[in-house]
Amino acid sequence: MKELSNVACSVEPSATLSVDSLAKKLKAEGEDIVGFGAGEPDFETPDNIKEAGIRAIREGKTRYTPAAGMKELREACAYRLKQDFGLDYDYKQIVIGSGAKHVLYTALTALINPGDEVIIPAPYWVSYYEMVRMVCGHPVIIRTKEAQQFKITPEQLENAITEKTKLFMLNNPSNPTGMLYSRDELKALADICVKHDIYIMSDEIYYCLVYDNKKFTSIASLGPEIKKRTIVVNGVSKAYAMTGWRIGFAAANPEIAGVMGNLLSHSASAPSTISQVAATEALTGPQDTVEAMRKVFEERRNYIVERMNKIDGVSCISPDGAFYIMMNIKKLFGRNICGHLINNADDFAYAFLAKGKVAVVPCTAFGTSSFVRWTYATSMENIKKGLDRLEEFLKGEQK
What we know:
The protein is α/β, with parallel strands linked by helices. The protein has 14 helices and 15 strands. Helix 3 runs antiparallel to helix 11 (273-284) and helix 5 packs across helix 10. The radius of gyration is 21 Å and the shape is globular.
């Protein structure tokens, strides 16, 4: 038989989904596994949003919508961007996709030619790297350090830009680090992008989940020159606990939005009409459940950070937003724990799952091998159980 696509065959499976799948497999086999893998809120979708979806079915809203999404939802996205960031977009500049991940891939397809360079700060969300390769772009990885709160500096960005640079990918707040860029930090990065005329992909899916009274700034709000070069990506999955509804959106200049719409018309088309109706209610209806969930996430973050930093051999910095903890495991390298030699994040994660019965994500696929990611999008009971098991697991060191 003829060979398959070289590009497709070179794509690595998602580390996040791989760990989650293995954890679910072990659970199905009867193992008592505590999962901290996939980033999925453990809350129910709010009732008003569920009811909107149910009404859509009962009212027969089950037909195709335009490929870029139904007008009502695109207007709702524009409304939310105006309310939260003061950004003005016509609904025709909004493109709806089957989740923020789908929107990111569609935007990259619209922007990238073979050989174009895309700057990605590490640690990065695992799919950024593979998506860029899937559209035949070249990922340029900029390593950041825990000491700099995992944030790229203006100097690092400036030094990474070449004549082939097309795009800078920004995740704010970040998955996996949870760190948030301040307005001043964003302004410095934006000025460099304008200076070199490069686009910014600003993934803002966690913008509602920011802690310690810190303020989120959308980089597109920093002036007309940066706005026209920015593709803002967002969705309803995290803020409204709607992961399975699969609705994401992008806001961009008319040319980019038009090309994205054309791409969707020949690929996935629009998401489920029922999901689009429900998402419209999420974005325009009461927002009190968003704040209620945010407060619970902040309480969980405070607990896990305080307790983790009291455990010998591991540490973490306190994230500003999202719902992830980057646990530093450098001090464990070279140790034999429960019969497993730990030399990197993969060794630790699979030993911890096998012996500690806890699923965490090795950050090797996020661009660093000295950390594992925990999510606190799970109950406080699970968080306490997971940390208890971490303490017990680390006591299994063999001298």
